Amino acid sequence: MIKFSGKELSIDKVTITLPYSILDAEVSNGKIFVVYDYMEFPMDAPAKNLVCIDPSGNELWVAGNPA
After folding, report:
1. What confidence score (pLDDT) does residue 18 get?
2. What is the pLDDT of residue 61?
3. Tens-digit pLDDT profile for the chain (67 aa)?
4. Distance from first CA to last CA of the chain, Å, rounded?
5. CA 5/CA 45 separation, integer angstroms
6. 39 Cβ contact list (under 8 Å, min separation 6)
7. CA proximity to 27, closest of 49, 61, 50, 53
8. Within 10 A of 25 (CB to CB), how many other CB atoms are there?
9. Cα–Cα distance between 6 and 37 in angstroms, integer?
10. Would you tell me which of 3, 6, 21, 26 could form a disulfide with 37, CB atoms 3.0–4.6 Å apart?
């Protein structure tokens, strides 16, 4: 089971603190897909706010923004 509030993400009984507030998070095939609040990113560049992490909180990839 996955829960999130602010910057904290809880999976089963493990809580991970992430660098930005979480708008949405889903688990699929052992990976966690997180959408951060884009308003917390600098306004002068695209927000790279879709990331994939492992259950330990290690970032596996960050989605690029379309040009």
Report:
1. 96
2. 97
3. 899 999 999 998 899 999 999 999 999 999 999 999 999 999 998 889 999 999 999 999 999 877 6
4. 35
5. 26
6. none
7. 53
8. 19
9. 9
10. 21
For 4, what's the count of Cα atoms within 13 Å in the CB-facing half-sphere?
Answer: 20
What CA–CA distance (Å, rounded) separates 29 from 26? 10
DSSP 11-42: ETTEEEE-SS-EEEEEEETTEEEEEE-GGGS-
Structure-token match 């699929």, residue found? 28
What is the C-alpha radius of gyration for the chain, rounded to an integer number of angstroms? 12
As a residue count, the chain comes to 67
Q: Smallest Cα–Cα separation from 55: which of 3, 23, 21, 10?
A: 10
Q: Which residue has the tokens 């688990």?
A: 27
